[in-house]
Amino acid sequence: MSKRTDIHKVLIIGSGPIVIGQACEFDYSGTQACKALKKLGYEVILVNSNPATIMTDTSTADVTYIEPLNVERLTHIIEKERPDALLPNLGGQSGLNLCSELEKAGVLKKYNVKVIGVQVDAIERGEDRIEFKKTMDSLGIEMARSEVAYSVEEAVNIAEKLSYPVVIRPAYTLGGTGGGLVYNVDELKTVVARGLQASMVGQVLVEECLLGWDELELEVVRDSAGNMITVCFIENIDPLGVHTGDSICCAPMLTISKELQAELQRQAYKIVDAIGVIGGTNVQFAHDPKSGRIVVIEINPRTSRSSALASKATGFPIALVSAMLAAGLTLDEIPCGKYGTLDKYVPDGEHLVIKFARWAFEKFKGAEDKLGTQMKAVGEVMSIGKTYKEAFQKAIRSLEIGRYGLGGAKDFAEKTKEELLDMLHVPTSERQFIMYEAIRKGATIEELHELTKIKPYFIEQMKELVEEEEKLKKFKGQVPPADVLRQAKLNGFSDKYLSKLLNVEEDIIRKARIEAGITASFGSIHVSGTQNAKYYYSSYHIQDNKEPSSSGNKVIILGGGPNRIGQGIEFDYCCVHAAFALRDMGIETIIINCNPETVSTDYDTSDRLYFEPLTIEDVLNIYEKEKPLGVIAQFGGQTPLNLAAELKKNGVNILGTSPETIDLAEDRDRFREIMNKLGIPMPEAGMAVNVDEALQIARKIGYPVMVRPSYVLGGRGMEIVRDDEDLKIYMNAAVGVTPDRPILIDRFLHNAMECEADAISDGTHAFVPAVMEHIELAGIHSGDSACVIPSLHISKENLDTIKEYTIKIAKEMNVCGLMNIQYAIEDGIVYVLEANPRASRTVPLVSKVCNIQMVRLATQIMVGQLLGLPSPVPNLKEKKFFHYGVKEAVFPFNMFPEVDPVLGPEMRSTGEVLGLAETFGEAFYKAQEATNHRLPLSGTVLISVNDRDKAELFEVAKGFADCGFKILATKGTFDEIVKNGIPAEKIHKLGKGRPDILDAIANGQIDIIVNTPIDKKGADDDSYIRKAAIKNRISYVTTMAAAKATIEGIKEIKHNTAKGVRSLQEIHCMIQDITE
Fold it and tell me: Which CATH number is 1021's domain given?
């Protein structure tokens, strides 16, 4: 094997927190790279700021740093670790950009670090718009007509030459950040200004618009000898104009001729060869179906979101192979059970894959549901079938948006054909569902093609589904004849959707189907580069089950489905660890999941992977085939929990905490009874079904109150309500959130400190590794609040109470596995807010900061009971920590410029980072730095706070003054500060005189903003301050608690030089057991 011998120690840069456009596909690629390089005998150093990933576990790389991803921190790490090589193309855009910056800063040269995989000049040729154009011109490959601009004026002139509409693409960015499609000069000025800020090099491309063309992608892998293969041909069903991350895609290409595919491959090979990438590259083309013109849009010289999709669609592990190629191997040296060696690979699977995006517009008040060239999706699903119809319908039910087919979404069925067609002028997340109802109302294929530019073939397929659905409806009230039912299943109609169409219970349809011998069989996909590894999918087009199942002890783990706000990579982390723990116990593992971006859907995470939707029907199919000891449902977030009770009813053995206990915790009344029995205080509360009941309860408890629907994850639909008027508005709007489940109304705790405890319980003993203190006060969702482990301000007495309550609750509810309990401390009294008897999003965080394998322990408890093994809980010891971990949330507000970036009880963050240090101040500072909002150490602070926060104003203003900041304040705040003898200057609010706040922000006169929102939206609304802060990339805080933590961070860094960098392994070595 020609592996490189001039390098021994490789540094891998991770992609940082999950943001829109860069999700957990990079955890998957980074984890694979660590595996590949360690197997080849290299020592691996990993840097990433995201604690929720598998890659930042101490077992993945040899040395792990959870540090902010910037040149300064990386220089410290390189200086300390002295790696021979840097592998930058597996950490997404963050990894590539950092590699370029390290090169420019001379760091790589100084410490003699070689870049492997993709060379720095190749990054430039692929990412810099001018260099890329030069390369394409030299190859004779056509690009869209375009020019580069470094200022708004230049962009205006270019656009006039090209004629509107034009597309703006900033250089070195991701997910189309800062870009967009503009139709006139005013829009152009806004978008270009935003784009120049988003670009690392202040450069945007103004490009002719190719709206409505086919968007086609090739995933190419190249080795150092110049051998190339195409792993996958991907066709975007949505034409150009919708970002590929938001587009529905299929693989293989369904409407593109073999000749055209061969031409695309020829051009892609020329490009990849000229750029010189070693490993995976994604090449995007546009094709005009009318003239046949082919244009290359861009390439990603790295593993990307598309390469995660391509890997899972074909079974070719791109990231794993890329890492091996970067280490010097060539494709003809990597053996493969199917093709002999990988250079002979061709994408020849007998299956079809659909990718469908998952959005979160409902989380952002005022966000427009409109798709364009800037990516808006927060996650995606992939489904596998034998036909387009089967795979497409499987994708819909994988999304977990409460839909099991294309019909009956929202109120689309009530609209006229004209109204529906009118809704199709602009692409939205609902486009396919609107088209379905429009066809039912008589819209023709031509009309729909004209409006959406989606190919007639795909609309034809949809039309056939509508026609079949109309035929099925003739059997309302009964189960259709076997031949009709069989046809419906061949075309992907789910039992649940059929039950809705026919008004027959799902169980009845299921029984009738099985009696008629209509059952799904399973096909497999071979994993390239392995002898015989494979994973599975179901289809009604497969005749017999050739795939044998083993007879040993095995357990099914239900995954978390698509990423979304409130349920992210943290739950995938838990599922993966459960699989590892079971494997170590000698039990065969089976994972069911439909998210192509994750480590859980990596072929070697479990013994058998089923790439299937997480619905009752699909899970039972697999359960009946595999006949496992049981199913673990508590690690995948809300998704599997919603299935647990129904699965149990169908005879499935649910391991760990029972579905009844989970229901008990969700049922407020029953939970309150248990708390009363245990003598544990909860805030006063009530439940209401209508406005009158709600008003009665709220007046009894006293405003402000917290209102929310029952059974939710991520605080969906939660608000703090301060008077009757607001409550009426909420009740009128909220009734539809969860049918047959009341609205919960709780007393809102004032100035209460929130904290949470994760526990591991075996039903008789429980252990709490640490209590996590929230930096934001009660009222801000725990997923969005910054928090610190171990706690800082909680008294020893309160800490003991929290641990005592947690253990009492775990025992009383007979929790078996993990549990998370949220507490609030008001005036020294500890209140229980809620208990979740399942893995929570804080599990990876607590595991890493406290060096405890929570999921492994929980899995041992759950399965140990079956195998008669002793529980590990009684032997767990309390620890003494010499460091603090601060978690900070990362928000996508920059993608939704029309939304007020203020925090509340509904979760809106997409990801998180962790800052680790010996003091709280430094850890907090590092966490801010890791979110790319580095705190200024000097300059000017703008303070404008509401009346409720004036009590704490003196402390905050004095803190900034002590750090040497100049203070600007708005009238009321100014008067209060000056009254206390602290120097400040007055500044006008918007519309109260010039120069005002916006002038000062635009002129760069403000370095940090403290602005707590006024509750009432009205004439004196101040959301413009927060929106301007995001637009101008100024650090801002919207709560007094965060302001105090900020001051502590600034003080710590100003007065004590940071202690250098420590790896996670070194930090863990310092933790000590507390001996009684």
Answer: 3.40.50.1380
Instruction: Tell whether omega for the bond before 88 is within 30 degrees of 0, i.e. cis.
Output: no
Instruction: Give the number of other Cβ atoms within 10 Å of residue 309's Cβ.
Output: 26
261 Cβ contact partners less than 8 Å away, ≥ 6 residues apart: 233, 253
**What is the residue type of 199?**
S
Only one residue has tokens 């066809």, namely 439
CA distance 835 to 758: 10
How does pLDDT run across 277-322, given as a tens digit for each residue?
899 999 999 999 999 999 999 888 887 778 889 999 999 999 999 9
- Do the beta carbons of residue 18 and residue 174 sit within 8 Å? no
Tell me the CATH number at 570: 3.40.50.20
**Could you say which DSSP state residue 495 is in?**
H
Mean pLDDT for 1026-1053 is 87
Kindly tell me the sign of the dihedral angle through the C-alpha atoms of 733, 1018, 750, 777: positive
Do 512 and 528 lie in one domain? The reply is no
The answer to whether position 471 is within a domain reads yes
Q: Are residues 474 and 531 in the same domain?
A: no
| 507 in the same domain as 396 | yes
DSSP state of 399: S
Where on the phi/psi map is residue 821: left (φ > 0), alpha (ψ -120 to 50), or beta? beta
Q: Up-side HSE of residue 632: CA atoms within 13 Å toward CB?
A: 35
Question: What is the tally of helices (H) and strands (E) in the chain?
Answer: 36, 44
Residue with tokens 């890493």: 848
The pair of structure tokens assigned to 186 is: 């005013």
Q: Is residue 977 part of a domain?
A: yes
Tokens of 692: 């009158």
Average pLDDT over residues 1027-1041: 84
Measured between alpha carbons, how far is 591 from 589 in angstroms, rounded to an integer? 7
pLDDT of residue 711: 56
Neighbouring residues of 383: CB distance < 8 A, sequence distance ≥ 6: 353, 354, 356, 391, 392, 394, 395, 398, 594, 611, 613
Cis before residue 704, ω within 30 degrees of 0? yes
Q: What is the pLDDT of residues 465-499, one digit of tens each?
A: 999 999 999 999 999 999 999 999 999 999 999 99
- DSSP class of residue 169? E
Cα separation, 432 vs 440, whole angstroms: 13
Q: Is residue 94 part of a domain?
A: yes
Per DSSP, the three-state class of 311 is: helix
Neighbour-count burial of 972, counting CB atoms closer than 10 A to its CB (0-12 exposed, 13-18 middle, 19+ buried): middle
- 495 and 527 assigned to the same domain: no
Are the beta carbons of 550 and 366 closer than 8 angstroms?
A: no
The residues facing 223 across adjacent strands are none
512 and 539 together in one domain: no
Based on the domain organization, do 948 and 1044 belong to the same domain?
Answer: yes
Statement to judge: residues 498 and 604 lie in one domain:
no
Q: Which helix (H) or strand (E) holds 86?
A: strand 85-87
pTM attached to this predicted model: 0.90
Residue 1005 per-residue DSSP state: -
Please give the structure tokens belonging to residue 486: 């069989």
* Tally of structural domains, the chain: 5
Q: What is the pLDDT of residue 1018?
A: 40
Question: Cα separation of 133 and 155, whole Å?
Answer: 17
Residue type (1 letter), 1010: V
pLDDT at site 128 = 77
Distance CA 449, CA 254 (A): 17
Domain membership of residue 317 (yes or no) is: no
Token representation of residue 653: 């053995």
Residue 899: how many CA atoms within 13 Å on its side-chain side? Answer: 19
The closest alpha carbon to 306, from 386, 243, 384, belongs to 243
Q: Is the pLDDT of residue 1031 over 90?
A: no
Same domain? For 611 and 649 the reply is: yes
Q: Which residues of 1007-1017 are buried (b: 16+ CB within 10 A; e: fewer)?
A: bbbbbbbbeee
The residue assigned the tokens 């999700």 is 23
Residue partners of 551: CB distance under 8 A and separation at least 6? none
- Among 74, 97, 116, where does a domain finish? 116
492 is in which domain, residue-wise?
A: 385-516
